[in-house]
């Protein structure tokens, strides 16, 4: 009996230990199932950077009621709002620092000028400022191959540059013939495909084709006139870095005189105008009327028609190179933008908070000498006095039937056919 009692006590003790182990395992499994990341861990560890991932884990692992899940979302949105407010504060601080930096730069420039050689101002009414910025120091390492070509082509470090692909081959032929007829020696065709290279070589014309560039080559070979026009700002930069002044020419231009004989060279740029009279070409005071303003209803504004981005003379100065850089960068970033609009915006917009404007000095060309096709077909051909003028160039920029109007300009001004311009409408025949 004593032995049995002893065995029963041992058996009861062992069964209690076993039961405790079983209960512990069950409880552990339950906790492991409902609290996979630990009982005291507030949130599951993030397995991804996506902000909603940990809440997806919670939704699957924990049996949240809809109200609890909404509380989690509200908490997350609140944290996002706080983060957004913090970022806005940082942006404001950065803008303030940028403004301070701009002011410091301006003061540094003033100091630099003051440390240089200074001169007294001329008497009242006789003061004349310098309109041109200093020329850059040429850097031949930018493009040794182009350096060699320009050394042979340029005259007085000046050259006419035109871009062309096979799509405008017929117009290029008229363009080259007019340049040769006038006797201009310093011009260079920038070929955008091999067909134009061969065409120029066959006609004894100086030609340059850039080193392979995937983006430039694609646009150059397949692009429209507008797309090709946008390339010039990127390509011209190298010419200026090499120390050459460039007279940039579109392909739809007929030369009737040597343009280098009619440049002033007193500004960083001389630009053809899209205007058709003194007001539109050179600027005017345009008054805006707001009757609800009462006494202050009339607001005076200054207006000028666009500078033509297809014909301009540009000197190798830092502001001029920065202009080309800015326009090229914007056209890359904004592929649907019109290159002439971007060109004019960069020339016209002043500095203001958060933006530093360009300081390119510019001159507008005489719109009767450097004539756009609106001036010719809408005004000049109908005026007996103006018809006697011989322009330096005629740019067929306002009309889509470019080739036929270019031929008509040659017939009228070169071959003396008095009615060569008569059959064309004033505007587009679309």
CATH class of the domain at 142-277 and 308-367: Alpha Beta
The total beta strand count reads 12
Radius of gyration: 37 Å
* Helix and strand composition category: alpha/beta
Strand content is 5-15%
Considering DSSP H and I runs of 4 or more, what fraction of the residues is helical? 40-55%
Q: Quickly give the CATH architecture of the domain at 142-277 and 308-367.
A: Alpha-Beta Complex
CATH topology of the domain at 142-277 and 308-367: Spore Coat Polysaccharide Biosynthesis Protein SpsA, Chain A
Mean pLDDT comes to 84
The biggest sheet amounts to: 7 strands, mixed
Q: Helix count?
A: 13
Overall 3D geometry? globular
Domain Nucleotide-diphospho-sugar transferase: 184-406
Protein name: Glycosyltransferase
Coiled coil: 70-118
Subcellular location: Golgi apparatus membrane
Walkthrough of the structure:
This protein has helices at residues 2-34, 53-61, 66-115, 144-153, 169-182, 194-202, 214-222, 225-241, 278-282, 318-333, 339-348, 373-379, 402-413, and strands at 158-164, 187-191, 207-208, 245-249, 253-255, 269-273, 284-289, 298-303, 307-314, 362-364, 370-372, 393-395. The protein has a 7-stranded mixed β-sheet with strand order 3-2-1-4-9-6-10, with helices on both faces. A 3-stranded mixed β-sheet has the order 5-12-11. It has 430 residues and is of the alpha/beta class. It has a domain at 142-277 and 308-367: Spore Coat Polysaccharide Biosynthesis Protein SpsA, Chain A. Its main location: Golgi. Keywords: Cell wall biogenesis/degradation, Coiled coil, Glycosyltransferase, Golgi apparatus, Membrane, Signal-anchor, Transferase, Transmembrane, Transmembrane helix. Its EC number is 2.4.2.-.
């Amino acid at each position: 009996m004593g032995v049995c009692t002893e065995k029963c006590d041992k058996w009861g003790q062992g069964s209690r230990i076993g039961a405790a182990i079983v209960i512990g395992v069950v409880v552990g499994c339950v906790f492991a199932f409902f609290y996979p990341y630990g009982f005291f861990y507030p949130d599951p560890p993030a397995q991804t950077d996506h902000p909603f991932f940990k809440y997806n884990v919670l939704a699957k692992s924990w049996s949240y009621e809809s109200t609890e899940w909404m509380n989690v979302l509200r908490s997350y949105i609140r944290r996002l709002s706080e983060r957004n407010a913090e970022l806005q504060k940082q942006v404001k601080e950065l803008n303030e620092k940028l403004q301070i930096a701009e002011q410091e730069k301006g003061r540094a420039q003033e100091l630099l000028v003051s440390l240089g050689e200074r001169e007294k101002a001329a008497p009242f009414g006789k003061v004349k400022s310098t309109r041109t910025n200093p020329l850059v120091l040429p850097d031949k390492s930018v493009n040794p191959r182009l350096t060699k070509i320009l050394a042979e082509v340029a005259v007085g470090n000046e050259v006419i540059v035109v871009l062309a692909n096979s799509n405008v081959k017929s117009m290029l032929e008229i363009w080259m013939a007019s340049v040769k007829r006038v006797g201009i020696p310093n011009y260079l065709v920038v070929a955008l495909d091999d067909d134009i290279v061969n065409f120029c070589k066959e006609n004894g014309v100086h030609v340059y084709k850039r080193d392979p560039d995937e983006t430039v080559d694609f646009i150059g070979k397949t692009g429209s006139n507008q797309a090709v026009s946008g390339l010039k700002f990127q390509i011209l930069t190298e010419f200026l870095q090499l120390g050459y002044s460039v007279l940039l020419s579109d392909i739809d231009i007929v030369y009737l005189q040597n343009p280098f004989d009619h440049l002033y060279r007193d500004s960083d740029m001389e630009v053809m105008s899209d205007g058709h009279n003194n007001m539109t070409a050179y600027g005017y005071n345009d008054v805006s009327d707001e009757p609800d303003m009462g006494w202050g209803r009339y607001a005076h504004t200054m207006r000028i028609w666009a500078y033509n981005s297809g014909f301009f003379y540009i000197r190798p100065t830092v502001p001029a190179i920065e202009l080309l850089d800015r326009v090229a960068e914007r056209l890359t970033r904004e592929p649907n933008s019109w290159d002439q609009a971007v060109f004019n915006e960069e020339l016209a917009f002043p500095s203001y908070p958060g933006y530093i404007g360009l300081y390119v000095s510019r001159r507008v060309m005489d719109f009767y000498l450097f004539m756009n096709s609106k001036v010719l077909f809408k005004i000049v051909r109908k005026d007996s006095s103006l018809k006697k003028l011989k322009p330096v160039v005629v740019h067929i920029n306002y009309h889509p039937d470019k080739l036929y109007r270019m031929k008509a300009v040659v017939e009228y001004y070169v071959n003396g056919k008095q009615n060569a311009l008569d059959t064309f409408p004033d505007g587009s025949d679309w």
